[in-house]
UniProtKB/TrEMBL annotation, chain A:
Residues 48-75, 130-157 form a coiled coil. InterPro entries: Ribosomal_mL40, Ribosomal_mL40_metazoa/plant. This is Large ribosomal subunit protein mL40. Keywords: Coiled coil, Mitochondrion, Ribonucleoprotein, Ribosomal protein, Signal, Transit peptide. It comes from the Eukaryota. Gene3D superfamilies: 6.10.250.3440.
From TrEMBL, chain B:
Its main location: mitochondrion. Keywords: Mitochondrion, Ribonucleoprotein, Ribosomal protein, Transit peptide. Belongs to the mitochondrion-specific ribosomal protein mL46 family. Residues 8-107 form the Large ribosomal subunit protein mL46 N-terminal domain. InterPro entries: NUDIX_hydrolase-like_dom_sf, Ribosomal_mL46, Ribosomal_mL46_N, Ribosomal_mL46_NUDIX. GO terms for cellular component: mitochondrial inner membrane; mitochondrial large ribosomal subunit. It comes from Pelecanoides urinatrix. It is found in: Mitochondrion. One of its GO terms (molecular function) is structural constituent of ribosome. It comes from the Eukaryota. This is Large ribosomal subunit protein mL46. Residues 57-78 are annotated as: Disordered.
Amino acid sequence: SKSVSPHALCSFFFLSSWLPQMVLFRGSHWQTSLLALRASLPMRAQPKKKKKVDVKREQAQKDRMKKKIKKLEKAAPEMIPIEDFIPPLKYSESSRVRSLPPLSFEETERRVLLMKKWCLFKQNQDKAEQKAIQTLLKAQQEALKELRLESEELYQAAIRRDEGLFPFERDGPNYTPPLPGYDPPEGKCVDITKVYTQ
Amino acid sequence: TAAAPRPWRLFGAMCLLRLPRITQPLEKEEEEIAALMGQIELEKSHYSDHEIRKLQEEEQLRRRKDSKYDGDDEAPGKTVIMAQDLEDKWEQKLLQFKAAPRITDADKNNNRTSLNRKLDSNLMLLVKQKIGNQKLWLLPQVEWQPGETLRSTAERAMATFLGDHIQAKILGNAPYGIYKYKFPRAIRTEDNMGAKVFFFKAFLQSSDLSQVELKEDYLWVTKDELGDYLKSEYLKKVNRFLLD
């Protein structure tokens, strides 16, 4: 019963002096028996002084704890490590390095030329996209101009913001269309991500 | 003073788009680059656990063959699953799965009224409408009535041809394009010179249109096929607000 606080022990001692008949009463499973408890209580000659010294000691302990808590709180909160940016150590072992033949001169040449072709391809693609967007905008501006000539009221209704448009969600295109009547296999996913609290 | 009545009649038309369901095929350059990127990634990577296991088992097999049944005492009791066996098993499982085809039956029959055609591009709704005394292929349009915004006119146009239970996301309150035309001289008057058709765009969201009964002829066509049906001036204006 070392885990029982002195406070609980004192109260129990009081209760036991009141009801000596209730031997079976146990405050908690840590208190094995009444008689053993009585023997384990520290007996002091001067009960009054014991209280003062105890109280003083307890207060000193409390102050020390409070100081420690204040120090911890003042210290800056530790950064939560981002698991993705820290590669696990087992992957930097030398035995893991792939052994491949070195690239030939033709291969490097081919790669460089391919990258240049890709640059050009992407540039043309981007230019075409920009042009399409510009035509789109011009067409819309023209339509709005004509609408304004027609009726100011309709024009104002047209340029009002559409609140229901965003957020706009859509399932992106896949490689194959959905298979009708497909039953996906059952499985369970166990999430083992570590959650850090500050 | 009341504003003078404008001589133009207003129409609201809806360009209903069915968005693509599958990805477009890669161009030649894109495929080459994708292969190159895969190769570079492989070269820069380290061995994974599965690959190390495979290498170690290959080593063991080789040693066992060279040393000629020296390790026979340890192995035969337990049946060890090799990494190679696992890979074969996975390969088999992949081959058993059969995905839906990218080119559907409607593609092969060129059935232009079906929505299951050309799954990798946008499809637009074209309806045959009576304008004056001609029946023309147009984007569904309906005349504007005073008291409603042009967007609601377009919505009404969609509902007239496809019914009320169509789910479509209209992209904003503003029109995307305009087609202005003057009536032929026979019908033209001071107050009734011509018509302005304002186009609105919407994305079709309900994928099942089997309950819809269209009274008129309708077609779902891609941007390239529009030229087969629309008149040149109309087509020019429509092409401006369509992204491929």
